[in-house]
Amino acid sequence: MEIVWYVLITLLTFIVMEVVTWCTHKFVMHGFLWVLHADHHEPKYPHVFEKNDAFFVIFAIPSIALFYFGVTPTLNYLFFIGLGILFYGIAYFLVHDVLIHQRFNWFKNIKNKYLLALRKAHKIHHKNLGKEDGECFGMLLVPNKYFRRN
């Protein structure tokens, strides 16, 4: 029964991370840490890494801490919260950096309606080059209007 709880905790954390990502993107990245996120909104950013990549480290720190405290003194639920954050981070990397921004030459010929809608929603987010008046701050949840346009 304990394994079921750990799986549920991991899945719930993954789901909650979409809300955390939306709030962080809207109020932190497009707020007081715009200085780190602004280069991500520059068209055709010329460098391999962006200041925005610092957010990978920022999100990794709580995950790593939860892994540590999740095995000290014995395995406990904190480890699985860290695991949910890690899985979300992997999904974020694959969806955001690989699929949407195509920072790597993987998944070039996508035909899936959900993934195309997700890409379109993110493109709308990047139409606005400033920190105000943005939309589509989440990563995995796509508003219905982007499915209708496909």
The averaged pLDDT comes out at 88
Shape: globular
Oligomeric form of this entry?
A: single chain
In helices, the fraction of residues equals 55-70%
Number of domains: 1
Span between termini: 43 Å
Rg over alpha carbons: 17 Å
Secondary-structure element pattern, one letter each:
HHHHHH
Structure in words:
Belongs to the sterol desaturase family. Keywords: Carotenoid biosynthesis, Membrane, Oxidoreductase, Transmembrane, Transmembrane helix. This is Beta-carotene 3-hydroxylase. One of its GO terms (molecular function) is beta-carotene 3-hydroxylase activity. It comes from Arenibacter echinorum. 63% of the residues lie in helices and 0% in strands. It has one domain. The longest helix is centred in the first third of the chain and has 31 residues. The N and C termini lie far apart (43 Å). The protein has six helices and no strands. The mean pLDDT is 88. The chain has 150 residues and is an all-alpha fold.
Draw up the topology in text.
Layout: H1 2-32, H2 34-37, H3 54-69, H4 77-100, H5 113-127, H6 145-148
Task: Name some characteristics of this structure.
single chain, mainly alpha, globular
What does this entry show, briefly?
The chain has 150 residues and is mainly alpha-helical. It has helices spanning 2-32, 34-37, 54-69, 77-100, 113-127, 145-148.
